[in-house]
């Protein structure tokens, strides 16, 4: 047991060797260990027991070897005898596992998928067996677990497995503690910290703090004022987390505000006007450095300031009002203020000192009415100031001035200013002489005419070709209506169109209906066919309406045009023939046959065109694939799509279709060389570039991204070299040692992004450098030689140099001034011999230096020093220097007293032996027993001795009987000091000199000795001395099946595209089996699978590799991964096996187009929904993964109206409103939406947006004819003809038409919302001469909206009252001789009619004539045929 105290008992050596007690001491027993270390000692007292000489540390002695065995020899002398022995040092658990670093750093992208494995540095445990490292654990966490893997050498290493995807934004780093546990009891542990840095990817779009920001800004804010700061945060780091801001909205908004791209500050760019825009809806987009975006909405409310004065708008004004009528409406006006709130509220007032008042009506309408009856005779004119003041700060006001004339009514009887008048008239005056004037006060009115209407109806259909010149003939109306030409003018014939635009003109001279302008069918009707314009022909006396229509015939004046002149179509190269791709259709404003009739495409070998009609009757072109595409041959090309209409001659329009062929992984990488050969000197520094392999892949994108790795290489290669995954550079990471490994053969695999792979072989030849000094190994040595013996063998030694070539060649020599020489033998063996007889008396000791020098650069050498003693032989008689010597000795000396030494060459010293002066002379002799002193050297024949033994045999197992094989007697082996010397200088064998048997000195492990080399042969020599003889021998170590096949990785990951064709093979890493021959790896099997089978492939070096063969196509969507068990079997009996898990990741290709949840989406939207509102979210799914499963949404074949009104979010499919809806303009939108995945496949759905009407349009009144003056006494006279309409729909478009109840007028409906305003009965001008009629049209929507139209109707007078005089007779005094026509006086005539109020004027010489002076004009009107009263004229004397 290691660490046992010094002196601990190990064994009873005498007993084990079968010797007597004390025999070991008698025979000078020694315990000899390699390296001259004395781990054991013999008991100094008994010499029989074997004890520990020191504490043994197993780890120091044997490092990590599983069994620690220290071989040693027990050497006995007298006679010489060797015993081979071994000491096994058993391990104790005195070392804890220890990691090479206290902290490991892993950088892992947050995009890494679960299941990814990360190898970790393994811990070291110097203990062995069950005390060694057994397992690893990791601290509890939700993301990782640890696997304990076993290498081929039995060492265990950890792998960290990702269980749950990382998210840098949640946790940017993790700290785990990995613990290594050994198998001791109790176990020891070692720990290391794993710091995991989560690398950021751009997986977070910017997010605004609020989805909706609201801000308020006064309308008078100066330019550059800060409105608000929006802020978005991106959880990513670096450039991925840098956010820039931009506005997305209409140009008006862009011109009004600006945003700082870096800070998000939004400032005023242009003057704000609350009266134009009360609020702005802005979309703000934040974009990060990786292109991801986030959006928010901002509503900026403009705050009103009181910067607008009130406005007064006159709707009607009656500047002349009759006196004596109370409550007369003078004016109707409305007031408004463009501001809002208190700034918009107004107060309306007039002066207090006038007989008028203001009455509020509806919606800021006011009427100015008389406060009571006015009296023209008191005041005939009023100046009225209407003041409108708002309630804002400061208060603003507007004034409007009116001048109102009070018109006279006949409310005063005529009166003469005098009771009598005297007029002087010269005699003989001419008849009708004006002799004077007297005035009477009265009023008059002009009578009207009587109208009657006859409602009629007719129907006419007319046709005109568009773009016809103005004045072109359409129809002759009299002929078509059966009327006379003169009737057109007499009956006031007119043409009224529904939209009140004068498209046609009536020529009253000819009766022809002519075009009033050039008519553009496309502008009038758009794509609607036929294009009809509806109009009415109106006639009076009697009233008739003829309904008519005008059809505008199309001409081919427009060419087909594509909205996009350049179309891009992305098609994956493995798309099946016959696949159809719908294209954007062209637009032709013409209709009918002049519209688009056909599509063509330029000749090409891949596509033809096909036309298809969708549900709404639109014809679309479709591109049909005729021939498979190949990205590697042609990445893109262009086609010309032509749309042709049916005109004569036809017109056409073209668009370019750019076909982009999308690559699939249909090409495996290809190395530029199948075999790379290179050289590298040993001892090269780590980091040296050994070679760079390069593979190209004809695919593109991720499919062409090649990564490099070693394939099926040994652990030695993995620890010595590393390969750059991206560049293919093979870098040296460990020490190269030519003496250990002379070349490396490694397989390199290139894998593309789609999982296809290729392999090449790299041969690295290691170049030897002279880094090993020569070695000298003494086989036998005699430090004492007898003088006088020529060519005596002193030493037998062997030299070797582990280098090669010149570096391994050696020169061996000794110094020249010594009587010795070196004699070469076999296989670098040398014998050191005396050159001649030596004379001890001349020189008794020699120091010999054996020098071995190699021939490398620089030259290295080894020296070995020997000291040789020359032993004496009795070849000289003793001689005294003198014939006699005299020594004086005192008496009574003690015995053995030294009494002196004679000078001179006296060989001994004199002692007094007995104490009485007796001298004794002693001599010392050394006797050396030698064998044959001859110089002959024997060598075995050329044929070697061949032996064989199975590996793992026990120590001491019999190999051969050397004595018999060499033809020697047993005693010859001992006498000739027989030795067994192995080439590697290890003690694999030992020779039992007692039996002559060659025995195993240790268990032989074939795999440790020879690795995979077969046959495994140990070369050794049998050395005999006296005479010196060498026998070459070899030991064949036979393999036993003691190793199972093992896979380097317990899990093999293979990525295979689902588009991979059947029959494709995938070479996998082979298993390792350290056994050889039939016991080595022989076969592979795989667990049953419907997709794969296994095939065996043999490489050039005899290794067999498993190949996975695809039998049936894979489908990522059906089965994204498969797990198979690969089994390797050897040829032993019974066979051993090893397994590994084959994890097959089925890589997705873009073989699934997006699919919408519905083919048709329908949504209803109120027309007043705010801009920016979300209408609906369309959703499609794609069964593919990754980029192929990412869907973008776009409008497809969308009209300009749709593009202006809606937008769709590319990523979410949310459809938003970008422009205000108007039910009256468009009631529904049919939108085609296309979902396109990352590989270019697409699908379409339809979205029907129905716009719901709200009551946002008040009714409209269109007057066709109005008669403002109507005669009295005419019942059911037509006053006005008008039509009403409301652009809303349903109840919102239904209308009620009415007038005031207290008026003698009624409304009569005709057809199609036409009404006539007629008198309910005969009117009497004398009762009421004027009517103010308000026509009110109210719809039935919510809220109800109404429109009013005011008419003023004058009742004209007819002669239905006879005039009367106020007196039966009048007396007028007339001077004589008055001039003719002298005015002699005036008398009033009483009449109810203004035009018949007159004054009676008497003119001399004439019959009485009544003349009246109009009150208003003062004009003299002659009233004829009146019945005069009796005038009595008196001539007045002069």
UniProtKB/TrEMBL annotation:
Record-level GO cellular component terms = plasma membrane
Gene Ontology molecular function terms on file: calcium ion binding
Per its UniProt record, what InterPro entries does this chain match? Cadherin-like_dom, Cadherin-like_sf, Cadherin_CS, Cadherin_N, Protocadherin/Cadherin-CA
Please tell me the species this chain comes from. Answer: Fukomys damarensis
Keyword DNA-binding found: no
Supply the name of the protein: Protocadherin beta-10
Q: Name one GO biological process term.
A: homophilic cell adhesion via plasma membrane adhesion molecules
Subcellular localization is given as: Membrane
Q: Record's Pfam families?
A: Cadherin (PF00028), Cadherin_2 (PF08266)
Q: Which residues form the signal peptide?
A: none
The answer on whether this UniProt entry bears the keyword Transmembrane helix reads yes
Predominant location of this chain?
Answer: membrane
How does it sit in the bilayer? Answer: Single-pass membrane protein
Cited PANTHER family = CADHERIN-87A (PTHR24028), PROTOCADHERIN BETA-14 (PTHR24028:SF81)
């Amino acid at each position: 047991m290691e660490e046992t105290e010094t002196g601990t008992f190990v064994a009873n050596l005498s007993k084990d060797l079968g010797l007597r007690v004390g025999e070991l001491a008698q025979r000078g027993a020694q315990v000899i260990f390699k390296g001259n270390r004395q781990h054991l000692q013999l008991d100094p007292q008994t010499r029989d027991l074997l004890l520990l000489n020191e504490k043994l540390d197993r780890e120091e002695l044997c490092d990590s070897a599983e069994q620690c065995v220290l071989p040693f020899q027990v050497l006995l002398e007298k006679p010489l005898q060797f015993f081979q022995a071994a000491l096994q040092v058993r391990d104790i658990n005195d070392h804890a596992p220890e990691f090479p670093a206290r902290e490991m750093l892993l950088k892992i992208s947050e995009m890494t998928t679960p299941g990814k494995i990360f190898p970790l540095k393994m811990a070291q445990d110097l203990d062995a067996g069950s005390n060694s490292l057994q397992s690893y654990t990791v601290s509890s966490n939700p993301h990782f677990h640890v696997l304990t893997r076993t290498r081929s050498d039995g060492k265990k290493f950890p792998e960290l497995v990702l269980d749950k995807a990382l998210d840098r934004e949640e946790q940017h780093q993790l700290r785990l503690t990995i613990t290594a546990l050994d198998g001791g009891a109790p176990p020891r542990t070692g720990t290391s910290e794993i710091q995991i840095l989560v690398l950021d990817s751009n997986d977070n779009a910017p997010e605004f703090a609020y989805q909706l920001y609201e801000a308020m800004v006064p309308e008078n804010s100066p330019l550059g004022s800060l409105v608000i700061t929006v802020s978005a945060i991106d959880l990513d780091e670096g450039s991925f987390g840098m956010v820039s801001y931009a506005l997305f909205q209409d140009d008006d908004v862009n011109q009004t505000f600006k945003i700082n791209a870096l800070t998000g500050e939004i400032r005023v760019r242009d003057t704000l006007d609350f009266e134009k825009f009360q609020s702005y809806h802005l979309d703000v987009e934040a974009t990060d450095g990786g292109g991801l975006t986030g959006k928010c909405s901002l509503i900026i409310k403009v705050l009103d300031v009181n910067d607008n004065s009130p406005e007064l708008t006159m709707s009607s004004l009656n500047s002349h009002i009759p006196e004596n009528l109370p409550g007369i409406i003078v004016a109707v006006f409305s007031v408004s203020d463009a501001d809002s709130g208190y700034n918009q509220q107004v107060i309306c007032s007039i002066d207090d000192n006038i007989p008028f008042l203001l009455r509020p009506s509806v919606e800021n309408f006011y009427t100015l009415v008389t406060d009571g009856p006015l009296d023209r005779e008191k005041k005939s004119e009023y100046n009225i100031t209407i003041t409108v003041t708002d309630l804002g700060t400061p208060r603003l006001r507007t004034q409007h001035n009116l001048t109102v004339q009070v018109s006279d009514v006949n409310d005063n009887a005529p009166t003469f200013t005098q009771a009598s008048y005297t007029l002087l008239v010269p005699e003989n005056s001419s008849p009708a002489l004006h002799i004077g004037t007297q005035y009477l006060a009265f009023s008059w009115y002009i009578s009207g005419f009587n109208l009657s209407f006859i409602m009629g109806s007719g129907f006419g259909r007319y046709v005109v070709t568009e773009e016809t010149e103005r004045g072109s003939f359409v129809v002759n109306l009299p002929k078509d209506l059966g009327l006379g030409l003169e009737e057109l003018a007499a009956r006031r014939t007119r043409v009224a169109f529904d939209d009140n635009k004068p498209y046609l003109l009536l020529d009253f001279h000819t009766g022809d209906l002519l075009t009033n302008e050039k008519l553009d069918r496309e502008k009038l009707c758009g794509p609607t066919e036929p294009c009809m314009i509806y109009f009415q022909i109106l006639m009076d006396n009697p009233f008739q309406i003829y309904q008519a229509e005008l059809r505008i015939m199309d001409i081919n004046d427009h060419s087909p045009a594509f909205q996009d002149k350049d179309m891009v179509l992305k098609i994956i190269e493995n798309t099946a023939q016959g696949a159809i791709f719908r294209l954007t259709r062209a637009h032709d404003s013409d209709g009918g046959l002049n519209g688009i009739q056909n599509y063509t495409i330029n000749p090409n070998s891949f596509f033809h065109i096909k036309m298809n009609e969708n549900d709404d009757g639109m014809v679309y072109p479709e591109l049909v694939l005729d021939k498979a595409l190949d990205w590697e041959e042609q990445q893109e090309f262009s086609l010309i799509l032509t749309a042709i209409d049916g005109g004569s001659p036809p017109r056409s329009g073209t668009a370019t279709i750019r076909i982009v062929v999308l690559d699939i992984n249909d090409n495996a990488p290809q190395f530029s060389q199948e075999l790379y050969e290179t050289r590298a000197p040993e001892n090269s520094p780590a980091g040296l570039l050994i070679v760079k392999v390069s593979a190209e892949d004809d695919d593109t994108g991720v499919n062409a991204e090649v990564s490099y790795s070693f394939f099926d290489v040994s652990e030695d290669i993995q620890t010595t070299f590393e390969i750059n995954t991206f560049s293919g550079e093979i870098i040296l990471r460990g020490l190269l040692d030519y003496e250990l490994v002379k070349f490396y053969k490694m397989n390199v695999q290139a894998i593309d992004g789609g999982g296809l792979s290729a392999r090449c072989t790299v041969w690295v030849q290691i170049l030897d450098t002279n880094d090993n000094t020569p070695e000298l190994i003494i086989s036998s040595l005699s430090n004492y030689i007898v003088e006088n013996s020529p060519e005596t063998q002193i030493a037998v030694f062997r030299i070797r140099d582990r280098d090669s070539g010149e570096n391994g060649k050696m020169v061996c020599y000794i110094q020249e001034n010594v009587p010795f020489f070196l004699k070469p033998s076999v296989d670098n063996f040398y014998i050191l011999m005396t050159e001649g007889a030596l004379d001890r008396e001349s020189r008794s000791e020699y120091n010999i230096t054996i020098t071995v020098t190699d021939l490398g650069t620089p030259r290295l050498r080894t020296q070995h020093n020997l000291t040789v003693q020359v032993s004496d032989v009795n070849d000289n008689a003793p001689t005294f220097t003198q014939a006699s010597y005299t020594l004086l000795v005192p008496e009574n000396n003690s015995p053995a007293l030294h009494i002196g030494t004679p000078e001179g060459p006296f060989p001994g010293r004199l002692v007094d032996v007995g104490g009485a002066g007796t001298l004794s002379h002693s001599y010392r002799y050394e006797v050396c027993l030698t064998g044959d002193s001859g110089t002959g050297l024997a060598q075995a024949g050329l044929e070697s001795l061949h032996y064989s033994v199975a590996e793992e045999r026990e120590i001491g197992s019999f190999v051969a009987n050397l004595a018999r094989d060499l033809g020697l007697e047993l005693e010859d082996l001992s006498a000739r000091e027989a030795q067994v010397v192995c080439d590697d200088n290890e003690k694999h064998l030992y020779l039992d000199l007692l039996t002559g048997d060659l025995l195993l000195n240790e268990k032989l492990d074939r795999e440790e000795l020879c690795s995979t080399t077969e046959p495994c042969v140990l070369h050794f020599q049998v050395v005999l001395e006296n005479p010196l003889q060498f026998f070459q021998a070899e030991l064949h170590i036979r393999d036993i099946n003691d190793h199972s096949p093992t896979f380097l990785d317990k899990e093999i990951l293979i990525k295979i595209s689902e588009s991979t064709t059947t029959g494709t093979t995938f070479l996998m890493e082979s298993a390792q089996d350290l056994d050889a021959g039939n016991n080595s790896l022989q076969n592979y099997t795989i667990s049953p699978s419907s997709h794969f089978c296994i095939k065996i492939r043999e490489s050039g070096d005899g290794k067999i590799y498993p190949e996975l063969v695809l039998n049936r196509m894979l489908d990522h969507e059906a089965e994204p991964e498969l797990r198979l068990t690969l089994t390797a079997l050897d040829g032993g009996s019974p066979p051993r096996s090893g397994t590994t898990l084959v994890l097959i990741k089925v890589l997705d290709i873009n073989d699934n187009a997006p699919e919408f949840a519905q083919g048709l989406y329908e949504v209803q939207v109120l027309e007043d929904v705010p801009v920016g509102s979300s209408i609906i979210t369309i959703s499609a799914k794609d069964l593919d993964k990754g980029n192929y499963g990412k869907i973008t949404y776009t409008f497809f074949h969308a009209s300009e109206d749709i593009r202006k009104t809606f937008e769709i979010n590319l990523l979410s499919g949310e459809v938003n409103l970008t422009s205000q809806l108007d039910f009256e303009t468009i009631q529904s939108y049919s939108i085609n939406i296309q979902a396109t995945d990352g590989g270019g496949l697409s699908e379409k759905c339809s979205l029907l947006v129905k716009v719901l009407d709200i009551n946002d349009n008040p009714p409209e009144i269109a007057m066709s004819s109005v008669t403002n003056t109507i005669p009295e006494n005419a019942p059911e006279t037509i006053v006005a003809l008008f039509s009403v309409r409301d652009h809303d729909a349903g109840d919102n478009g239904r209308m009620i038409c009415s007038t005031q109840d207290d008026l003698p007028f009624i409304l009569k409906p005709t057809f199609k919302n036409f009404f006539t305003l007629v008198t309910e009965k005969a009117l009497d001008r004398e009762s009421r001469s004027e009517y103010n009629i308000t026509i009110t049209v109210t719809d039935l929507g919510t809220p109800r909206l109404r429109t009013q139209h005011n008419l003023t109707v004058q009742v004209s007078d007819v002669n239905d009252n006879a005039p009367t005089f106020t007196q039966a007779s009048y007396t007028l005094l007339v001077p004589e001789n008055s001039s003719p026509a002298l005015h002699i006086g005036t008398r009033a005539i009483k009449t109810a009619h203004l035009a018949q109020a007159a004054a009676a004027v008497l003119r001399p010489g004439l019959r009485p004539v009544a003349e009246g002076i109009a009150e208003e004009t003062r004009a003299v009107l002659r009233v004829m045929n009146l019945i005069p009263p009796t005038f009595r004229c008196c001539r007045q004397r002069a």
